[in-house]
Amino acid sequence: QQQVKQSPQSLIVQKGGISIINCAYENTAFDYFPWYQQFPGKGPALLIAIRPDVSEKKEGRFTISFNKSAKQFSLHIMDSQPGDSATYFCAATRGAQKLVFGQGTRLTINP
Amino acid sequence: GAVVSQHPSRVICKSGTSVKIECRSLDFQATTMFWYRQFPKQSLMLMATSNEGSKATYEQGVEKDKFLINHASLTLSTLTVTSAHPEDSSFYICSARDRLGYRETQHFGDGTRLSIL
């Protein structure tokens, strides 16, 4: 009930391409869905987040798509760049409760 | 804004040593801080939730006597790994929730790489 399942585990995309990472959740009480970006040896940094009252949120090259009925949400990185190579984590929570993280996706952008 | 500083960034010590890791919110007050552990190529595992002025809440399976947490002020929480052994080697990350910000948002530090010889 508390799990967030993330796929794929790793992803290789050519420079300029679109990177897509997917997450699925079970707990319908979740009402906040952030994505974090983590570089090796660093802590996660908040990239973008969405609430279930909207189906899409865009910030620059990063877009979250949210499907409430399917209990799924995804991160799209447009025009992917080598500097986007990192590990990405989706998460879910409700209010002041703890974050439930996905398993992570290691993204590699080939130049 | 919303900077969390974690110190030290890396520590190497002998088995049996106790190690203290500090987590500071530099430009905001944090009533709640979180401590995570991350193994290589794995996700973050919540160890405990630290509330200012009260005892920490530990996740199931985390030894509270092994991992001592003190949240003495609105800007500082410490994690002490007592009598550390090689199996305690890991990447420890703290996060903090801004008292005046969105309650869902956590700001993360850059982690501490702990290596026990």
Key terms:
heterodimer, A: 111 residues, mainly beta, 6-stranded mixed beta sheet, 53% strand, globular, B: 117 residues, 4-stranded antiparallel beta sheet
Helix content of chain A: under 10%
Question: How many whole angstroms does the radius of gyration of chain B measure?
Answer: 13 Å
Helical stretch tally of chain B: 0
- The overall strand count of chain B is 11
Largest interface: A-B, 22 and 23 residues
Q: Rough shape of chain A?
A: globular
Counted beta strands of chain A: 11
Summarize the structure in words:
- The complex is a heterodimer of chains A (111) and B (117).
- With 111 residues, chain A is mainly beta.
- Chain A has no helices and eleven strands.
- In chain A, the strands form two sheets. In chain A, strands 2, 4, 5, 9, 10 and 11 form a six-stranded mixed beta sheet that branches.
- Helix content of chain B is 0%, strand content 54%.
- In chain B, the strands form two sheets. In chain B, strands 2, 4, 5, 6, 9, 10 and 11 form a seven-stranded mixed beta sheet that branches. In chain B, strands 1-3-8-7 form a four-stranded antiparallel beta sheet, with no helix packed on it.
- In chain B, a hairpin with a 5-residue loop joins strand 4 (30-38) and strand 5.
- The mean pLDDT of chain B is 93.
- The interface between A and B is medium-sized, with 22 and 23 residues.
Q: How would you summarize what this structure contains?
A:
Chain A is mainly beta. Chain A is built from no helices and eleven strands.
Question: Layout of helices and strands, plus pairs?
Answer:
The complex is a heterodimer of chains A (111) and B (117).
Chain A: E1 4-7, E2 10-14, E3 19-25, E4 33-38, E5 45-50, E6 56-59, E7 62-67, E8 72-77, E9 86-92, E10 100-101, E11 105-110
Parallel strand pairs in A: 2-11
Antiparallel strand pairs in A: 1-3, 3-8, 4-5, 4-9, 6-7, 7-8, 9-10, 9-11
Chain B: E1 4-7, E2 10-13, E3 19-25, E4 30-38, E5 44-51, E6 57-58, E7 67-73, E8 76-81, E9 90-98, E10 107-108, E11 112-116
Parallel strand pairs in B: 2-11
Antiparallel strand pairs in B: 1-3, 3-8, 4-5, 4-9, 5-6, 7-8, 9-10, 9-11
